[in-house]
Amino acid sequence: MGLTIGVDIGGTKIAAGVVDEEGQILSMFTVPTPPTAVGIVDAICSAVDGAREGHDIEAVGIGAAGYVDDKRATVLFAPNIDWRHEPLKDKVEQRVGLPVVVENDANAAAWGEYRFGAGKGHDDVICITLGTGLGGGIIIGNKLRRGRFGVAAEFGHIRVVPDGLLCGCGSQGCWEQYASGRALVRYARQRANATPENAEILLSLGDGTPEGVQGKHVSEAARQGDPVAIDSFRELARWAGAGLADLASLFDPSAFIVGGGVSDEGELVLDPIRKSFRRWLIGGEWRPHAQVLAAQLGGKAGLVGAADLARQG
């Protein structure tokens, strides 16, 4: 199969990109993300129509944040869009006249990294995305593993602390409450409040108060050597690495790929994640260690992965 289109549904924009068999994006078309579920379907179709102009397109892949059924057709539940059993595949196919595959956005990003990014050369890869929350994807034996009902790899909602912090999913103690961009900000605010003398750089980047600290401030302060910001990254990394050790016990991959906005800080976060992973890996002294790698495709991973999954049908 030749050219396909991948669609990424973001909070502010919907991007559609024409992708070739080598994972290269040949053209992009973006539209603003509407506030309604119906409007988002319209916007997806508009983005696809805009991107396909001048290209012979064979299929469309859509990455959607939420639970997607085993037929890769219906969004069972989306946390940020009012989609409940939304027949997205059928609706978009009727409008654009092309075969459509719908995939969970974290799965699509994992597939993109496996095929064209940090996972090239590996048969067994586990991806985690450290963004506002924590997403994931499983590739074992060169195949994306979605589970019987299509909703596997929701790693962020593994409970790591019984009766721990309340999660947006309604449960308590979920992994993403301790290893995510949101968690990083919470750590920084708590530490800045407790020891403001160690957070001078961090506080100066915001409005001078712990409550004004945002994720971008923590990253910049850490790069400038702020002790509280650096310690906050280490705390996040401790939880992330411990979780990877648990996943190694389940899947035994050759590589973990860490993506998402938090991972953009490179070795600032990856090095302590690796140390925590080795610390908590059961039998780690005697067994092979999976590599912990930085994602390579950045924000384009989901779009590229969705397009490639559409190519495979």
Describe the structure.
By secondary structure, the chain is α/β, with parallel strands linked by helices. Helix content is 37%, strand content 21%. The strands form three sheets. A five-stranded mixed sheet has the order 3-2-1-4-8. A hairpin with a 6-residue loop joins β6 and β7. The model has no long low-confidence stretch (mean pLDDT 96).
Please give the share of residues in helix: 25-40%
What is the global morphology?
Answer: globular
Largest sheet: 5 strands, mixed
By helix and strand content, what is the structural category?
alpha/beta
What is the residue-mean pLDDT, rounded to a whole number? Answer: 96
The helix/strand series, from N terminus to C terminus, equals EEEHEEEEHEHEEEHHHHEHEH
- How many angstroms does the end-to-end distance come to? 10 Å
What is the count of helical runs? 9
Question: How many strands in all?
Answer: 13
Compute the gyration radius: what is it?
20 Å
Poorly predicted tracts of residues: none
Oligomer kind: single chain
Range of strand content: 15-25%
Strand order of the largest sheet: 3-2-1-4-8
Brief overview, please?
With 313 residues, the protein is an alpha/beta fold.
Ordered list of secondary-structure elements with their pairings:
Elements: E1 3-9, E2 13-19, E3 25-32, H1 37-52, E4 57-64, E5 67-68, E6 75-77, E7 84-86, H2 88-96, E8 100-104, H3 105-116, E9 125-130, E10 134-140, E11 143-144, H4 181-194, H5 200-205, H6 215-223, H7 227-251, E12 255-259, H8 267-280, E13 291-294, H9 301-312
Parallel strand pairs: 1-4, 4-8, 9-12, 12-13
Antiparallel strand pairs: 1-2, 2-3, 5-6, 6-7, 9-10, 10-11
Helix pairs in contact: 1-2, 3-9, 4-7, 6-7, 7-8
